[in-house]
Amino acid sequence: MSKSRAIPTTVLTEKYSRAVTYASAVHGAQVRKGTDVTYLCHLLGVSALVIEAGGTEDEAIAGLLHDAVEDAGGLARLADLRVRFGDTVADIVLACSDSTDSEWKKSVAYWDRKQQYIDHLESPDSDPRAVLVSIADKVHNARTIVSDLERDGVKALEKFNAPEKWMILRYYSELLRIGHLKAVPDTLTIPLALAVGTIASYMGEADVAQALAE
After folding, report:
1. 5 assigned to some structural domain
2. Number of neighbours of residue 36 by Cβ within 10 angstroms
3. Which of 22, 44, 138, 197 gives a 20 to 30 Å CA spacing to 65?
4. Cβ distance 147 to 32 under 8 Å?
5. How many CB atoms lie within 10 A of CB 58?
6. Cβ contacts of residue 130 below 8 Å, gap of 6+?
7. pLDDT tens track of the chain, all 214 residues?
8. pTM: predicted TM-score of the whole model, two decimal places
């Protein structure tokens, strides 16, 4: 079950400011999938959600940089993060990455890659700091999906790489389950649950049944 708790104040220092500048430099030319919106807005949004959930400054920085290794440099980027922001940030970012090799990512089937990530987060020895950042990432993404669905209908899901729509719903449903399992604060699991419910409402009965199948 998710936990509701008093949220401590997260003190942000010059280190966080440097991370914002770094994220802007690394991702400044990228845009959100299917839009002209700078990708930085997503990274700032994830970081804000981590802070709202009581995350530490290092966890908030990892929220800013959670895609830097996977999408912007691989292991060389990871080494740079470790030097600039320390082991804690680097370890969280690595744990939040689908892979460190863009070619591997292209070669693996969508659901196989997603299932591997689910198994990684669900494992008994998963890093709770990485789980927090990952769920914050999924909340921000799921809210965007809901906005797109409300505006464009189910065709909004066509911009994703998933070969079947049900895979999108299953993925977010599984991450919600892991959020509850790992006692992620309900400041994250409540909005994720609402988003998952809305996504399901836009899908046909067959897609929902397949998404929820064991």
Report:
1. no
2. 6
3. 197
4. no
5. 22
6. 62, 91, 92, 95, 96, 121
7. 455 555 667 889 999 999 999 999 999 888 877 777 888 999 999 999 999 999 999 999 999 999 999 888 889 999 999 999 999 999 999 999 887 776 777 778 889 999 999 999 999 999 999 999 999 999 999 999 999 999 999 988 888 888 888 999 999 999 999 999 999 999 999 999 999 999 999 988 887 888 777 5
8. 0.90
* Residue position matching structure tokens 């440097």: 18
Q: Which domain holds residue 173?
A: 14-212
As given in the structure block, the two tokens for residue 86 are: 């320390």
pLDDT at 8: 64
On whether residue 58 sits in a domain, the answer given is yes
- Structural domain tally of the chain? 1
Q: What is the DSSP letter of 185?
A: B
Q: Residue 177 has which token pair? A: 């389950």
DSSP state of 3: B
Please report, for the domain that includes residue 168, its CATH number.
1.10.3210.10
Residue 118 identity: I
Task: Supply 163's token pair.
Answer: 């070969």
Give CA–CA dist 67/73, Å, rounded. 10
Under DSSP, the state recorded for 108 is S
Q: Within its chain, how far is the Cα of 166 from the centroid?
A: 19
